[in-house]
Amino acid sequence: MLDNKQNRVMKVIIYVVCIFLAALSILPFWIMIVNATRSTYQIQQHAVSLIPSGYLMNNLKILLGKSFNPAVGFANSLIISVGATVLSIYFSSLTAYAQVAYNWKLRDAFFSFIMVVMMIPGQVTMIGFYQMVYKIHMTNRLSMLILPAIAAPTMVFFMRQYLQPTLSMEIVQSARIDGAREFRIFNEIILPIMKPAIATQAIFSFVAQWNRLFEPLVLLTDKSKYTMPVMVSLLKGDIYKTEYGSIYLGLTLTVLPLIIVYLLLSKYIIAGVALGSVKG
Amino acid sequence: MKTKKPGYDRYARYGYFFSIPFVIAYLLFSLYPTLYTAVIGFTDLKGIGATAIHFLKDDPFRNFKTVLTNPSFKQGFKNTVGIWLCNFVPQMLLALLLAAWFTDRRSKVGAQGLFKVLLYMPNIITAATIAILFAAFFGYPMGPVNDLLVRFGLVEKPVELLRNKTTARGVVVFIQTWMWYGSTMITLISGILGISPEIFESADVDGANRVQTFFYITLPNIRTILLFTLVTSLIGGLNMFDIPRLFLNGGPDNATLTTSLFIYNQAFSGSYMYNRAAAGSMIMFVIIGILSAALFFVMRDRDEGKLRKQIKLQQKEYSRKMKAERRNA
User: Whole-prediction pTM value?
Assistant: First the structure.
């Protein structure tokens, strides 16, 4: 009896805390989206409101009238995120397959190397990278942000962890007997087996690429090459100083695609985090 | 067909073939820039558009000395570690508490899926956007925070909150905690769910209460995951850039300056001191290298421990089978 009562009190506390935290997750974005529809005057009177107003189009006009160009940022971010994700998924799977399926002399040494370098963030070697790219006149090329994704140690690590217990060499053997080449076996048999791992890794890679600020900020100086996060930093400058409604709208435009994708795929994302995503 | 030596595996070479793209990309885009950064640290490379390298002759370590004695770098390093610590401790405590609640079998929390989704959400939103959003929230004179403070009568007139160093740092700490506790929570939950339920059952039988179960069973069993979270969070924290850069750009008076931001400013915002930035980067590289090496050894030992356990289990199984067979015979 006593235990039951205690349990009920506990439950109430848990729900109160969880609802508070959930509200804390939603409110900042709610205020942002609502303010995107309010006029600067309304925001100056009362900066917090939970009810949208009718100035969305007006804010949009002001926003697009200056240097903030969400369409360009969206397109560039999409090219980089998709390109880098596809490359890192494909080549990480290939590298992981080489680890699991074949017995080669340097295999274990190579894997140890991957584990050692996997934690080193690209940010600390950016000066050298910038100088290298600058020397070959490739700054402002999106490819310089996409191609490095071919070598993604963290993803190789997770792909290998997935493939190790999943792969049965008998399938590979029978394909070999049927005369399939090794490369074809990888493309037509192994990749489909890896679908679940590919799905989670793709989501995380895409989000990480989409949110990346440091590298694009350093490499891209041409406004037509700006990505969404670099574009968003324009909202901080003097051009939009008092256009509060437009600033909120600009911020909303940068995260709306993410929020939609997140709500659609949240189940897989949460499952993916549970598998262990290596991030700060 | 040529005959091959016995034991020759004709497929082994594909292991090398399939690793080639990774290796080439790694050499080109990671290893070479790393070495190049290290080299630049020993040169006088500075000035807009400069690429020519001249090694320092009088004192090869001059850049490193300059950076290490630079008051901004020292302040930045202190801030970085301080901000990380102040966000990691509450983040971990909150995540542990929530993970314990969500995995408790006695008071099953409903709508768990929804809570997880909402609590994790800030983590996937662009940090750059969040930084500017919070800067707008604390805007003076009429940001939402001031609006609320005035409306609830906590202050009479709007305050310029972010002029205060402690407040500015506090907001950065809050943003970091808010963005990351959900992620830590989910990692911990999956760790706790990985513990064998038998251990919890026997604790129940022994009459352990919730708190005892948590401290004597749950915590020791997720030690490695805790350590993993600690190290990855520390490495991420040491690289903190997006939030401090776009929130207040290191201000007020360097209160939110981090080492990453210091390095960025040295090289890319007006001063073009690539040599000093490179030296600063290499200092951070060494610190992070040591941390990740430590993590590598811990993870490797754990894997080996698991393997040993599995072998033992198999041996037990095997001897049991043998015994059963003998009995049948």
Answer: 0.87
